[in-house]
Amino acid sequence: MITGTTERLNIRIHDLISPEKCFDFLRKERWPKGIRCPKCTSNRVKKNGHKDSDPLCQKYKCRNCGRRFNDFSGVVLAKNHHPISVWVVMLYLMGINLSNSQIAAELDLDVDVAQTMTMALRRDIYDRKPGCKLTGVVECDEVYVKAGHKGHPEAVRRKNRQGRRRGLKGAPGRGTLEKEKPPVLGIIQRSGDVAIFMLPDVQRKTIEPILRSVIEPGSLVNTDEYIIYGKLTEWGYEHKTVCHANAEYARDEDGDGFCEVHVNTIEGLWSLLRSWLRPHRGVSQENLPYYLGFFEFIHNVRRRGKALLPSLLATLFGPAA
After folding, report:
1. Cα–Cα distance measured from residue 32 to residue 317, given in angstroms and rounded to the nearest whole number
2. What's the pTM?
3. Residue 108, exposed/middle/buried by CB under 10 A (0-12, 13-18, 19+)?
4. Is 3 helix (H, G, I), strand (E, B) or coil?
């Protein structure tokens, strides 16, 4: 017969992690080449005691410019009173794509508190993730995600409708933000990185500056035959299309038996994105860009589970993009 107290059974997962090891790990991620001043980048830094609220958090003073800082100055982890072990485990659980309510249950947090903390992390990753320049063979496509104003009742009231409890019923036709079915543009380099953007609408004037900022001139861009991509050659790109209306999804143009003209890579990514968003049971359009940015970052890093954690922490501690 197995016996045990209620207290022993209700162990919180972050209590199993040593705060001392968390601080050592985070210092190595923030300063892999030694401690430097966040203001002047000088390495002439001396220790200057510890934080009163957290004795494990080291304080420093720069001998060069006089700046005082601590282990977490300037990063989102410094903006909350929760122990560092909570933040580290939360970031790990976000990386394996648990929903906010699941994270709250695992960390014994109020759901609203977990929502606030995870959104702070997603925003910081979104702001700091590196941009990308795509070249070679690039595919472009758009997908439409149902996204209303979850968690923003004032926005629902402005539309003079009742809140929807069983998901949004999107308006027919191609979506827009106004229709609560925002377009998401994906640009992916074959065997390379992806860039994902939420758009207000799907028009040439909307996508042109985005494509120019992401795709190197002269690259070969594969798309379907949607009219918004009709001026890619005028914008400085090679352009090839497949016609989905005629059931054409891949084409071999040079007779080598390999169908090189297609947009299957980006369409496969949309399947991954839908699966990624599903556990969150609806994301508001106000927060959707941050979820997309987090998904984009994880895809481009190409790591999962605990191997992803150092990349996330390095980005949080790095400069904003």
Report:
1. 11
2. 0.85
3. middle
4. coil
